[in-house]
Predict the 3D structure of the following.
Amino acid sequence: MGLGLLLLQSLYFFLPAYLANMAPELIKKVPILNYPVWERKLGKNKTWRGLVISGLVGILVFWIQQILYPFPLFYEISLIDYSDFSLLLGFLLGFGAILGDLVKSYFKRKNQIKPGDSWIPWDQLDFVIGGLILSWFLYVPKVEVVALIFLISPFLHLLFCRLGFHLKIKDKKY
């Protein structure tokens, strides 16, 4: 298997976490469950809405991956046999991503870093760590898959932050 295919498979496998990590930002103006999870320790921007939507997005993306799995293109880029796993894996990837973000926010506040201020590399890796750790309850990818996800995710995070800034979805470029 070539490196390019392995990279594509790794990114496709982690897609529920990537999209779950972006979801709270995309729906931040929806006035449902807009209550801080724990304002004093996590900040006012970590809401129940983000927590709930991330798990649901993880499930939805994984479900779409299951539907697409039998088609040759998607079969080829699939790291796992999606018919062997329940939607729980999608939930764990998505919820793990936001849980990683919440844990990072806790330590960010402990270090007196303001909400929205950059904390490199944790801002780019928090969701990766959370998504991978929770998904390991059902599936542990090979070391090279984990390494690729860790290597490429910070660049993808920065790219999508800039895109969100230019689309006026985010207030900051990072």
Q: What stands out?
A: Residues 3-166 form one domain. The mean pLDDT is 94.
